[in-house]
Amino acid sequence: MRVTVVWASAPRTVQEVALDLPDGATVAQALAVTGWDLGPLDARPGGLASSVWGRRVTPDTPLRDGDRLELTRPLRVDPKVARRERFQRQGARAAGLFARTPKR
């Protein structure tokens, strides 16, 4: 079976590899075949998460032909907090689409 494994090792950097695996191979086996040094990232709590087509999976999940296995790093900043901070920096006058009244 053919599986694609994708990992963003750093911002704006994506590594992708297509693997030929035996039927019934698991997520953990696919990661072992890639040869990528995930080391401490995978071991610590909140480290790498794995998903197949965007759905979270565990290391013992069996893969199917054509699956796309994605490894994701944890978020550094909560998106809600980042948006709030951006809004505070730019001020209310430049708040976006509804800040200005339309001309008539």
TrEMBL record:
InterPro entries, sorted: Mopterin_synth/thiamin_S_b (IPR016155), RnfH (IPR005346), RnfH_sf (IPR037021)
Entry-linked Pfam families: Ub-RnfH
Entry's family note: Belongs to the UPF0125 (RnfH) family.
HAMAP family linked: UPF0125_RnfH
Protein name: UPF0125 protein A9O67_07530
Organism: Tepidimonas fonticaldi
Higher taxonomy: Bacteria, Pseudomonadati, Pseudomonadota, Betaproteobacteria, Burkholderiales
